[in-house]
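During the no-cost extension, the postdoctoral fellow (Dr. R.K.) reprocessed legacy sequence entries with the updated structure-token encoder. One reprocessed record is reproduced below for audit purposes.
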Amino acid sequence: MNILFIDNLEPNPLLGGISRVISCLASSLKENYGFVVSHAAEKFDKHKQTELDIILKDDQSYIPILRQFLINKDIDIIVNMRPTYCVGIINKAKADLKCKYIIEYHNTPFYARKDKKFAFKRLLRYDIKQEPFRYSIKLLLFPLWYHLSYLRVSKLWKRNYINADKYILLSNNYIDDFVNEFNIIDASKLLAINNPLSYKEFLPISRLQNKQKRVLIVSRLWNYKRIDMSLEIWKLIEEQVGDWELRIIGDGPEEEYLRRLVCRYNLKRVVFVGNTEPKCSGAFGLNLSYKNWTLFASFLYEWGGQEYNQTLVNNVENADLVNKNVDLRVLTDRWKKPGDIAQFKDIKDRGMTTLPTSRFVQDKALVRLNSLNVSYDFNRDWIKKHLRMNLLRLEASTSDLINWSSIKQERGLSYPRSWKVEFSLKAQF
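Re-encoded structure tokens follow.
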């Protein structure tokens, strides 16, 4: 069985959401059922965990490319994880071919959250900051824009349902809404599959006794994730749950708004983890002269932000002990026995890939020697007499020379780090 997954980003188990679902589902289909799995997407994610078999963009020129791929790979099933992505391209490319077409919508459908207030807040808090002129016009014409947008998206969803062999939603409630919203007579294509648990390994009860009393929200801080609703719920139960703590792990444009909500609700045990924006940043310089010598140095500094130490995750926590040389900390700093307080998991659990975790979110304080320039001016009287010059200067400069950081993170592991020193000779006649 040959199956093609389509999304706008490559599958990636580290990202969560649709990217993780596709990655885990593809692995399971290959390992347990012998499926041949291919991936199509618009672009690579910066982490690049999976090779794409075909680049697919919402452009008519990609119709023959996709069609030829479907024929060459003898694709039996197409699974589109974004029901509004490349719809026309896919429908035309698979025309007259035997492959089945499944649409899976891994989100709350737009018709299940017909909330003008929600849409208005999104325009006001986020969209207008990205494209002020465009979204200011939408804000002024909001009722008309909202109505026309709803009609356009509704038409797209109806067309999707007609062209799909199966249409998968996350809940039976969404199915009922779908049928009512679009006056569906034959609902046999609709199927509900709840959010999957994509973890193969679970901790035994004995290990859970040492866990801390924390409720974690790991998410992109975007408005459609509705973290604000979670804070409203926490407001109602915070006094009842004793010494439990709510940790919000993630980053995104909603963070400032969510922090204001925490203050407004007077929540005492809510902690944000993973904010990359520094509280303070800037630059300063140093300029020294002595006789014919001149030195100029510029520094950058940051303080108050956080960063995920991917080096520790890749080269210590998830180190490949079988095929690669590893850091000494792989053996010395791991958990060994009950009662140990260690940064890294038990070496027996090396087969379990560690997903994003607050253990490797570290406070960042940084001072960087950004550039250094040293110059020497030759004696002006001498060069004027013998070389008939007004100025002869020799300069040496370099950049990113020294990096003082609170986060010990190796550089140049994936690609050799270069250090350049440039020399110049300046003459003026």
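The chain has a mean pLDDT of 82. The first strand starts at residue 2 and ends at 6. The remaining legacy entries will be reprocessed before the final report is submitted.
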